[in-house]
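Title: Prediction job returns without error message
Component: structure pipeline
Severity: low
Priority: P3
Assignee: unassigned

Description:
Job completed but the reporter wants confirmation the result is attached to the right record. Sequence as submitted:
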Amino acid sequence: MSKTLFYLILVVFAATSIVLVAVRPDWVSDQNTFLRDFVNHEFLNLLGVILAITLASVANMHLEFNKIEERFQRAGLSKSRQNIKKAAYWLIGLFVAGVTVVTLKPLFGQGAVGEGVANMAALLIVLWHVLILIILTQLVFAIPPHIKKTEDQTPSSPQDTGGENRR
């Protein structure tokens, strides 16, 4: 999936959110019990867990990039490093945005429109987190293994190739 598709998903969700808040605010306000119970400390817990786990994974990816570059004795992963750095900073920024949404939600008033705006902003943040996680997952799976083949590693029997004829 491309970044353009991810941005399109975010724009479509934002547009849909605006339409829902304008046309049917009761669907996305605190009259919706799931959203009322989710966009509070539970929402911040979710963002915090995602942030903590993902930052640890990003640090691990950074260290693995170091190992790969050391193995080949040249720097060649600068774009990938920039991408994981951007992702990490976006996750931190989105966590701050989530704290802001939860903190300011009571100030939007008790009306369905204000609650709907806060709830949909929270869901947009969750969607954005998911898209960042997809990008990081794609990056991890794009790193191929580096296996040096020697003459001793050529398969000579079905058992060496994965055991298709195992009993």
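Comment from assignee: result matches the submitted record. The longest helix spans residues 41-72.
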